[in-house]
Write a structure and sequence with these properties.
Layout: H1 3-32, H2 37-59, H3 65-92, H4 98-122, H5 132-153, H6 159-186, H7 192-195, H8 199-229, H9 234-260, H10 263-268, H11 270-287, H12 297-331, H13 337-367, H14 370-373, H15 381-391, H16 393-408, H17 413-427, H18 433-444, H19 452-463, E1 467-469, E2 480-483, H20 489-497, E3 502-507, H21 516-523, H22 533-552, E4 557-559, H23 564-579, E5 583-586, H24 610-619, E6 624-631, E7 636-639, E8 643-644, H25 653-673
Parallel strand pairs: 1-7, 2-5, 2-6, 3-4, 3-5
Antiparallel strand pairs: 6-7, 6-8
């Protein structure tokens, strides 16, 4: 992450804190002027959202009719919300000072709009010079107007002058420190028409918006719960709760920066960390939903788990954002870092609008509920658990939506590494069309992500724990890993425990749902003599679809037998695989030969060794074959010393490779005997 992007992220986080402050300020004003606290929040949120939407419309142009419709539908919704809050509610629940309360609440929004307009008109870009006069004028006017309105109301509420002045200090710091970068990005235009064609970018947008809305609504829910549960004077409580929320947001910001550098993200990948964080948050929100009625420590435990899950989500989202820029560059060569900031700004906008729309719906229901709206603050304690436990269902739905997007996201750790390797190749002035085509087919075009391999690994790793030795022998990737078969044990151990990007050779009949039943019956179940014939056929029919799904999830290279054309197809796919950066996993042992007590390695088929010659002919590089022995007894995978193809070896080179691999595989087996 660049320094400028990090600075903008801090500015957006600080803007959220300022927004929360003025929302609390609105609730405190409403309570002091004998109006429902929910009404104060609804006034601030509705007017703020409408102003933001109108400003966004003035600066953004969408070509999509659907997006234009959503924009105008949002404007109409927020207009109706403003009318409902500012006209209908005061008419039904008229109080003596409702009009004054509304004016005091909307003054900070008016001040912010005037400041932004003046800064844009004068085009002040310097972060310091010439800005203080523009900022301080409207802010001083707001403090004076607030004092005059309090004096006109006749209430002894002059503490709001101090609160308004403190809010202006926060607003001044926001405009003083962070305005230049944001205003610079607002003048740009995003190539949205092309970007929306990128599948991984669209899924990332869904992940970012869904997780962001969930974070906002969870914060809103906990604020409601705390403010309804405490028995202190509301104005004092407002400062206490705001300080707590500000500390939490600051802690989350620091945690995201720390998590980005943590070994967890390097080990499991950013997308997997996002899935993990989402799962933790869903567990805390749904499984511990009864904690709202227990209060105290129970709510605190739920809040801590939610913070951990949401922080992992935020961290993964920030990390993936940089990788998405690389994907966009793969699709369009003329984009730069500005595009990343612009897209992030749009995502922030839609996240805020969706969050505000949901919060408005909840608040409007509360202010028009006579039981809640007419209750005094102390009486609201009885509603705290009921309201919070109901509202928390909304962000849980968005967490589930974020989980769906993240599971579909093809930009996993594997393809993140591949993408960065491709960038390094391009920076070195070289070209790799096979790798580029592979990345395009996975990250840009519609791609059905294969999650079966992750499910298999998750279930089998604890059961089939193996250690790995000989990793130091692997000097160059991509490579060809030659594995002992050991019936079904070898392939499973290889897929689960080898820490490399592998595509296995698998017989084509095992991948075809129409051929696998007969193949499995004749190759496996027919040998089970104690089972009746009809049960063997039934077992083959039941197991075959599951096996085919599991094997296809490994992104295999089908091995065709029969005609020369089919065999050539297997080798063509294998060479393209190596050029795209994937290693190959194959099992060359002859299945007709039986293992003996003193020899657990069968003779190898020799045809696979032609991969070395074909790869050298295409890529002008020498590929290395590594023998790997899976020891069921010692629970260890041993990687032996590799055999590199020698282009000067002539016709005998394939035989040399096979014989050397057989010998080294037997040496690995002897280590098992010892």
């Amino acid at each position: 992450m660049t320094r400028k992007a990090s600075h903008i992220d801090k500015g957006r986080l600080y803007s959220k804190v300022v927004y929360i402050y003025f929302c609390f300020y609105a609730m405190a004003v409403a309570e002091r002027f004998s109006v429902s606290v929910f009404f104060g929040a609804a006034v601030f949120i509705s007017v703020s959202a409408l102003a933001r939407m109108i400003d966004f419309l003035a600066q953004t142009r969408y070509d999509s009719r659907l997006k234009k419709f959503i924009e105008w539908a949002s404007v109409v919704f927020f207009m109706l919300s403003v009318v409902c809050v500012l006209a209908v509610y005061p008419f039904l629940y008229l109080t003596a000072h409702a009009a004054i309360a509304i004016v005091i609440i909307t003054l900070p929004l008016l001040e912010h709009g005037v400041q932004s307009m003046l800064l844009r008109r004068k085009q002040i870009k310097s972060p310091r010079a010439g800005r203080a006069a523009v900022l301080l004028g409207p802010q001083a006017a707001l403090v004076v107007l607030t004092g005059m309105l309090v004096w006109v109301s006749g209430l002894q509420a002059f503490e709001f002058i101090i609160a308004a002045a403190l809010g202006m200090v926060f607003s001044f710091l926001r405009q003083w420190v962070f305005y230049a970068e944001e205003s610079e990005d607002q003048k740009q235009r995003i190539p949205d028409d092309d970007v929306r064609l990128i599948r991984s970018a669209r899924l990332y947008d869904g992940m970012a918006i869904s997780s962001g809305v969930a974070l906002h609504i969870f914060a809103f829910t906990y604020v409601l719960y705390i403010l309804l549960s405490i028995r202190l004077v509301f104005f004092h409580s407002f400062f206490i709760v705001f300080a707590a929320i500000a500390i939490v947001f600051g802690a989350m910001s620091l945690a995201t920066q720390r998590f980005l550098r943590a070994s967890l993200f390097a080990r499991i990948g950013k997308n997997a960390a996002f899935v993990l964080g989402t799962a933790i948050a869903i567990f805390a929100a749904y499984m511990l939903r009864g904690n709202w009625f227990l209060g105290g420590i129970a709510v605190s435990v739920q809040a801590v788990l939610l913070l951990v899950g949401l922080t992992l989500q935020m961290t993964a989202t920030l990390g993936l954002r940089e990788d998405i820029l690389l994907v966009i560059k793969l699709h369009r060569k003329d984009v730069n870092e500005t595009v990343l900031r612009q897209r992030s700004q749009r995502l922030e906008h839609w996240t805020a609008l969706i969050s505000e729309a949901i919060m408005l719906c909840v608040l409007i229901l509360l202010i028009f509920d006579p039981a809640v709206s007419g209750a005094w603050l102390d009486d609201n304690i009885t509603y705290a658990s009921q309201i919070s436990s109901s509202v928390v269902a909304v962000p849980t739905v968005f967490l589930l939506l974020a989980l769906v997007y993240s599971v579909k996201q093809p930009l996993t750790q594997k393809y993140t590494r591949r993408l960065k390797a491709y960038v390094c190749i391009k920076e070195a002035g070289k070209d790799n069309p096979e790798m580029e085509n592979r990345l395009r087919s996975i990250l840009i075009k519609k791609y059905k992500k294969r999650i079966g391999v992750h499910i298999i690994r998750a279930f089998l790793r604890p059961v089939m724990y193996h250690s790995l030795t000989g990793e130091q022998n692997v000097q160059k990737l991509p490579a060809i890993f030659v594995f002992n078969h050991r019936e079904v044990y070898g392939p499973i151990a290889a897929v689960v425990f080898l820490p490399y990007d592998l595509r296995p050779w698998i017989l084509s009949k095992m991948l075809d749902k129409n051929q696998i039943i007969r193949h499995m019956y004749e190759g496996t179940f027919i040998r089970i003599k104690w089972m009746p014939v009809f049960m063997r056929k039934l077992a083959a029919a039941i197991a075959s679809p599951i096996v085919a799904w599991a094997l296809n999830s490994l992104d295999p290279i089908p091995v065709y037998r029969g005609t020369v054309r089919n065999v050539i197809k297997t080798f063509e796919l294998s060479i393209e695989c190596l050029q795209a950066g994937d290693s190959i996993l194959l099992f060359p042992e002859n299945p007709e030969e039986r293992y003996t007590q003193h020899d657990q390695v069968s003779a190898f088929y020799r045809g696979f060794a032609n991969l070395g010659r074909l790869y050298y002919k295409r890529a002008h590089e020498c590929v290395t074959f590594y023998p790997v022995f899976a020891s069921r007894f010692a629970r260890v995978l041993r990687i032996g010393e590799g055999v590199t193809y020698d282009p000067l070896g002539g016709r005998k080179e394939e035989g040399r490779i096979v014989e050397t691999l057989e010998a080294r595989m037997r040496m690995l087996f002897k280590q098992d005997e010892q």
